[in-house]
User: Which sequence fits this backbone?
């Protein structure tokens, strides 16, 4: 696709794709690269520093950290992608409808988003999960309730802007059905900034998920989620800093990759001409 | 001026009421039994009933909301089940520490973002600019709670420069103890501010009055410090205003790690002890804080920029 | 002895499309106490030339690649180090920009901005600078100057703001003021006032003024000598009455024919066909040739013609058309 080519042309996009590809390969090839199981306990080998046998060292249970971090990649990415693209789909739809139809629906919706926007993100997510109880499902609920708003606002803004452009007026005059106008003409353009935003959203969501695990409010052990890996490492921080280091670096790695991807996308998706 | 502020406050009232409503509803979240969900299926019928009573779940929803609204309007924001005190009392005890982190981290964010944004703007397109951008991209990617531990490991445990947390007596000691948590929040905030500030600086540097300043024979640093920076800082005020929600949210995470008895740890504790009134009242209080800080930011902006009248 | 002597100035501007030589071999002199007008179409290089004098390129990537800009008693401004040039700017040579609405810092009070230029070049106290600023505001006939000193730019009208800009330009009694279309953004009545103000200032202080404009009427009103520019070069220069009444270069004639008004009352309006050439890859020979009514094949070949006096005309009235060598050939 043209977008992919443009993406590769920008240094940010190329680097991002490279990083993500590397991550993907590493995750897929882990069974080949590492003979260890992410959950296998091996007390004899506990708290070993990084070595040829254990690239990232072992944790207090003797589990190979490399394997666990790689397994965590699958976990965290799955969580992040669901928690970002689910709300995004919903938010985009709402924004599109709101911006397109305008009037009282739009005004009411904007009121609503203004109010929810005032709540700090972490506070809201924590509170919701806190009330519902810690579990992966409740994590999804919390994110879905809160995260769609950013997208709705962005897409609404774009829809209003685009809606005023002449070619949209033309389609209205030609009496294209409203859903058709929305989907075929406005959506592709309005979604672009939302897509760029979603990249930084992934970065922040991965962090948020990890932070929730940290508070015991998210994913539960023994899942190899990165946040949990860090939590488990705290008691051993002094003797085995590698336990804390590698999962954190993994989060940073993914964060940089998606930030760069966002940068690359914002350049690649810019309308030409 | 006072009248305009008053008018703005009045306009905020529906928003504030909306906040109480949304705050209330969000925590009612799903149909079904909140008590059962929170306590799990292992809880006995008596325990569940007791939980429902404590949380006020045995009343119809609209009644629960009105009671909550009343609590908000009277200023108590609910009564803690655990502490047996009004939520606002707990808040008052802990607010100074959270505000301390918010203020200190904003300061740190500015101190970090300003020079780098300036350098990036002045050397736009050149290697320094790209390098700075990469550094700050990496900075956003660093999760705050992990960073907290890394800093504790390094600056506290290994180098012994800072205590691992807690709070002390008096301003000086608190500033010292709150430095690390503020540094963590400040770093991620700086990453967000730097980009916008750089853009604002670049925009200002293109202005005609900067041309005039050069034509007057002013030297580069004089122009930058006296004309470019002050005007860009004014737009920075509104940038920070937008980020306030983020800064306040960031304190929630670091407070627990650094054992700071602020609002964030209050929230976490309330969640752990299943203190619904506190969770609810505190969440609403946070939102109100954000709204008020935004208003203050708007006022500051109007004061700083002579062209703007606070409409 | 001329005050400012520009010889074969060449300035390149780097843009997305390539490198344009917006000033390509410009030469003219400005004498002490005279008002020198520069006219030409948009993009002819008049602004670029004048900005080159003080190297005020406003963020554009530009540099002087040839020629000299000799300010009498000071030296070649084109070769000067930036720090030295900064001392010339504002004190010996001042610049007035086109748009008064954006030329002043919106968050700084008027008095402070005027005082700023004084304090930059002279060791005076804040009070002394403020007093001097007050007097300058009076010199440019701003009413209630004490009140205006503490005002912000947005509180003043466009005309008043331009007066403030002029006050800043006059502050250190420069020998030369460069005014880049200072009245274009103002309405007609205000224009007139500003023109008269500039003339009055010249009369009382003896400062020279370079006046850039596209309005031949203005040139006729206040300028003593003038230059006509086209595509980065000067095509005609001389005393205003000479150039406007007896234009030598076909371009000047075409300009006069194309404009209504006082200058050429008895002629029909004839627009000039075509558009100016690209300055990234300028054509050979005379650049006006493609649009010139009397062009000959030889015009579009070789180097661009140099300025030279025309036989039978005053010695300081120069033009750059090869056809004027021969009397009546360009008629």
Assistant:
């Amino acid at each position: 696709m043209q977008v992919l080519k443009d993406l590769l042309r920008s240094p940010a996009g190329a680097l991002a794709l490279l990083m993500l590809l590397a991550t993907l390969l590493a995750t897929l090839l882990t069974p080949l690269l590492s003979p260890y199981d992410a959950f296998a306990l091996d007390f004899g080998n506990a708290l070993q520093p990084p070595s040829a046998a254990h690239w990232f060292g072992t944790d207090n249970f003797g589990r190979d950290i490399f394997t666990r971090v790689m397994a965590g990649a699958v976990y965290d990415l799955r969580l992040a992608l669901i928690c970002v693209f689910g709300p995004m789909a919903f938010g985009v739809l709402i924004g599109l409808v709101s911006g397109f139809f305008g009037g009282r629906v739009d005004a009411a919706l904007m009121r609503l988003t203004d109010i929810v926007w005032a709540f700090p993100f972490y506070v809201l997510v924590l509170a919701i999960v806190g009330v519902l109880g810690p579990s992966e499902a409740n994590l999804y609920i919390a994110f879905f309730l809160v995260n769609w708003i950013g997208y709705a606002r962005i897409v609404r803004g774009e829809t209003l802007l685009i809606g005023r452009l002449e070619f949209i007026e033309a389609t209205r005059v030609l009496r294209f059905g409203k859903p058709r106008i929305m989907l075929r003409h406005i959506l592709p353009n309005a979604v672009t900034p939302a897509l760029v935003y979603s990249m930084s959203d992934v970065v922040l969501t991965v962090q948020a998920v990890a932070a929730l695990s940290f508070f015991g409010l998210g994913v539960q052990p023994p899942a190899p989620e990165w946040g949990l890996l860090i939590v488990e490492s705290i008691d051993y921080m002094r003797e085995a800093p590698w336990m804390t280091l590698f999962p954190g670096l993994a989060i940073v790695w993914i964060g940089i990759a998606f930030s760069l991807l966002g940068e690359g996308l914002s350049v690649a998706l810019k309308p030409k001409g | 001026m006072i009248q305009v502020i008053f008018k703005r406050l009045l306009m905020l009232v529906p928003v504030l009421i909306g906040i109480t409503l949304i705050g209330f509803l969000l925590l009612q979240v799903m149909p079904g039994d909140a008590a059962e969900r929170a306590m799990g299926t292992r809880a006995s019928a008596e325990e569940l009933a007791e939980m429902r009573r404590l949380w006020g779940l045995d009343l119809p929803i609209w009644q629960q909301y009105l009671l909550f609204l009343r609590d908000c309007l009277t200023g108590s924001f609910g009564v803690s089940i655990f502490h047996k005190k009004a939520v606002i009392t707990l808040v008052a005890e802990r607010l100074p520490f959270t505000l301390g982190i918010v203020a200190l981290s904003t300061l740190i964010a500015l101190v970090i973002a300003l020079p780098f944004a300036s350098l990036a703007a002045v050397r736009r397109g050149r290697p320094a600019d790209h390098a700075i951008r990469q550094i700050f991209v990496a900075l956003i990617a660093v999760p705050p709670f992990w960073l907290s531990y890394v800093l504790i490991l390094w600056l506290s445990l290994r180098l012994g420069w800072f205590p691992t947390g807690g709070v002390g007596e008096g301003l000086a000691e608190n500033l010292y103890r709150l430095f690390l948590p503020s540094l963590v929040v400040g770093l991620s905030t700086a990453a967000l501010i730097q980009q916008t500030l750089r853009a604002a600086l670049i925009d200002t540097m293109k202005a005609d009055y900067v041309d005039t300043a050069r034509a007057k024979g002013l030297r580069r640093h004089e122009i930058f410090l006296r004309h470019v920076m002050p005007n860009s800082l004014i737009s920075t005020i509104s940038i920070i205003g937008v980020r306030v929600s983020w800064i306040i949210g960031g304190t929630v995470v670091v407070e627990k790690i650094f054992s700071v008895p602020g609002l964030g740890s209050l929230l976490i504790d309330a969640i752990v002890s299943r203190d619904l009134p506190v969770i609810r009242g505190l969440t609403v209080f946070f939102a109100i804080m954000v709204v008020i800080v935004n208003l203050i930011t708007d006022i500051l902006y109007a004061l700083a920029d002579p062209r703007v009248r606070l409409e | 002895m001329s005050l400012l002597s520009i010889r074969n100035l060449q300035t390149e501007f780097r843009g997305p499309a390539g490198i344009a030589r917006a000033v390509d071999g410009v030469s003219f002199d400005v004498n002490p106490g005279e008002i020198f007008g520069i006219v030409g179409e948009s993009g002819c290089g008049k602004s670029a030339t004048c900005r080159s004098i003080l190297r005020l390129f406003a963020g554009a990537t530009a540099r002087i690649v040839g020629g000299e800009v000799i300010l009498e008693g000071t030296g070649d401004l084109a070769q000067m180090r930036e720090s030295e040039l900064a001392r010339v700017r504002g004190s010996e040579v001042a610049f007035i920009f086109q748009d008064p609405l954006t030329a002043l810092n919106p968050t700084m009070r008027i008095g402070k901005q005027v005082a700023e230029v004084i304090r930059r070049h002279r060791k005076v106290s804040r009070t002394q600078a403020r007093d001097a600023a007050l007097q300058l505001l009076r010199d440019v006939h701003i009413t209630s100057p004490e009140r205006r000193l503490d005002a912000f730019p947005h509180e003043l009208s466009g005309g008043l703001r331009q007066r403030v800009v002029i006050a800043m330009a006059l502050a250190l009694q420069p020998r030369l003021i460069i005014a880049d279309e200072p009245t274009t953004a103002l309405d007609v009545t205000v224009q007139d006032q500003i023109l008269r103000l500039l003339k009055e200032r010249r009369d009382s202080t003896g400062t020279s003024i370079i006046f850039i404009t596209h309005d031949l009427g203005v040139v006729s009103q206040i300028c003593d000598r003038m230059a006509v520019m086209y595509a980065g070069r000067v095509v005609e220069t001389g005393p205003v009455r000479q150039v406007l009444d007896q234009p030598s270069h076909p371009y000047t004639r075409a300009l006069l024919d194309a404009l209504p008004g006082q200058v050429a009352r008895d002629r029909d309006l004839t627009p000039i066909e075509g558009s100016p050439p690209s300055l990234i890859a300028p054509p050979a020979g005379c650049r006006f040739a493609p649009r010139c009514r009397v062009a000959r094949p030889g015009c579009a070949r070789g180097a661009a013609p140099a300025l030279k006096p025309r036989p039978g005309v005053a010695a300081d009235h120069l033009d750059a058309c090869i056809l004027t060598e021969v009397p009546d050939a360009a008629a």
User: Anything to note?
Assistant: The mean pLDDT of chain B is 82. Chain B touches chain A through 53 residues (CB under 8 Å). The first helix of chain B runs from residue 2 to 28. The two ends of chain B are 10 Å apart (CA to CA).
